[in-house]
Design a protein that fits this description.
This protein is of the alpha+beta class. The strands form 5 sheets. Strands 1-10-11-12-15-9-8-4 form an 8-stranded mixed sheet. The protein has a 3-stranded mixed sheet with strand order 7-13-14. It is built from 12 helices and 17 strands. A hairpin with a 4-residue loop joins strand 11 and strand 12. Helix 2 packs antiparallel against helix 3 and helix 4 packs across helix 11. The protein has 2 domains: 89 residues, Helix Hairpins; 304 residues, Bira Bifunctional Protein, Domain 2 (BirA Bifunctional Protein, domain 2, 2-Layer Sandwich), CATH 3.30.930.
């Protein structure tokens, strides 16, 4: 059943499952053999003790006992090696997709719904990198000079736009959607990255320091791990956290793709939403979470579409994912600004996050979910390209005016 379900993601995963079954059979045989020898050792130990009490010669028994102990030691070492090999494969096997996920690669992604109308501009729209340069709010050359390609610098009103968007999103999610705000570390240890599924499979996309700490690719990692190795109160589920963090991604293998402007960068800002729930509520919670992310785009007045990702396009830890893609007029493109995912108990098992369904009851694994609420670079792209005016200025959505202090971005705006 597991093999068939994983084959919906990738047919090659069936081979990995078969290897795990083989290793598990070896593991069971080794455990059975070891336990039998340990029983023999216990019996021989009793015989040696009895022989010593009666004054009998226990030389042969001691020799046999020594050989049995040596055999047990060898079996235990073989067991550790088998378990290590099995766990190495297990840690690289992705989550099982839900039955409602479309089968196929990215071309099988399904558009669930759209919202809003594409802007109708009576002039030829500019791409965001030209708008940002003309307004003096985006400095890509100096970012490249400082750190390299993919590290943008926001200047003046550009910086205020970033700060304003973060504050707007956090206020929305905490005041209207009921999330508790958290300001997490930007570095995590290997246990945290393993718990959410970034390690070992996605390590090539992460930046790592000399002392084995990883720069967060998303606040999902530190926030989910707030409850690693804990048992939660089932009466308090579901609940969620909202967090801002800088995000760092090497984007290995993506060279030459979407390199203009800030469509694909190595450092960016994002507000993240993470939820913990009982298993029976996780499907409804995914829809709730998606709605919270959608609300941001609706309040910003940005047209978007919701995609249900196919099995071959799911993230490693995800059992089901919706992508939110916003429309950007200057490049006439749809850009992903959020992925809302349910991980079932995949992350909870790796991070050992459980809950007690009822007082005194046996703990069970929670279900975890997360969504971007939202990622800033592509949201900024859509704002600049969709709200651009013929005179070169950019209108500011009404909901952002209190956070930025102006209703229009202009070259001399600060």
């Amino acid at each position: 059943m597991v093999s068939a379900a994983l084959a919906r993601r990738d047919p090659d995963l069936a081979e990995a499952v078969a290897r795990i079954v083989e290793f598990d059979a070896k593991r069971r045989d080794l455990i059975k053999e070891s336990e039998a020898l340990k029983a023999t050792r216990n019996t021989n130990s009793e015989k040696v003790a009895q022989a010593k009490k009666t004054g009998e010669d226990a030389t042969v028994l001691l020799g046999e006992l020594k050989q049995v102990s040596s055999n047990i030691k060898n079996l235990d070492q073989a067991l550790r090696e088998v378990e290590d090999s099995m766990n190495e494969i297990l840690m690289r096997i992705p989550n099982i997709p839900l039955d409602t996920v479309p089968v196929g690669d990215a071309s099988a992604n399904e558009v669930v719904r759209t919202w809003g109308e594409k802007p109708s501009l009576n002039f030829s729209p500019l791409p965001h990198w030209e708008i940002g340069e003309n307004l003096g709010i985006l400095d890509l050359p100096r970012g490249a000079k400082i750190s390299g390609s993919g590290f943008p610098v926001y200047v003046g009103l550009g910086s205020r736009l970033v700060r304003g968007l973060v504050s707007f999103m956090l206020d929305l999610h905490t005041k209207e959607h009921g999330y508790k705000e958290v300001w997490p570390p930007a570095l995590v240890n290997a246990a945290s990255a393993t718990g959410t599924g970034q390690l070992p499979d996605l390590e090539e996309n992460m930046y790592v320091t000399g002392d084995e700490l990883y720069l967060v690719p998303t606040a999902e990692v530190p926030i989910t791990n707030l409850h690693r190795d804990e048992i939660l109160d089932g009466d308090k589920l579901p609940f969620g956290y909202a967090a801002y963090s800088p995000c760092f991604r090497r984007e290995a293998g993506a060279h030459g793709k979407d390199t203009r402007g800030i469509t694909r960068v190595h450092q960016f800002d994002k507000v993240e939403l993470v939820r913990f729930t009982r298993p029976e509520l996780s499907s409804d919670e995914l829809e709730t979470l998606l709605g919270h992310a959608e609300t941001v785009l609706q309040k910003l007045g940005l047209p978007y579409r919701v995609l249900a990702l196919a099995t071959g396009d799911l993230g490693f830890s995800s059992a089901k994912t919706y992508d939110l893609e916003v429309y950007a007029a200057g490049t006439d493109s749809w850009l992903e600004v959020s992925s809302a995912s349910v991980f079932t108990d995949f992350q909870a098992r790796r991070a050992k996050i459980r809950y007690r369904p009822e007082k005194g009851g046996k703990p069970d694994f929670v279900h975890t979910l997360n969504a971007s609420g939202l990622a800033l670079p592509r949201t900024i792209i859509a704002l600049l390209e969709n709200y651009q005016q013929e005179d070169g200025s950019v209108k500011v959505p009404e909901c952002l005016v209190p956070y930025i202090g102006v209703d229009r971005l202009t070259p001399d705006g600060g």
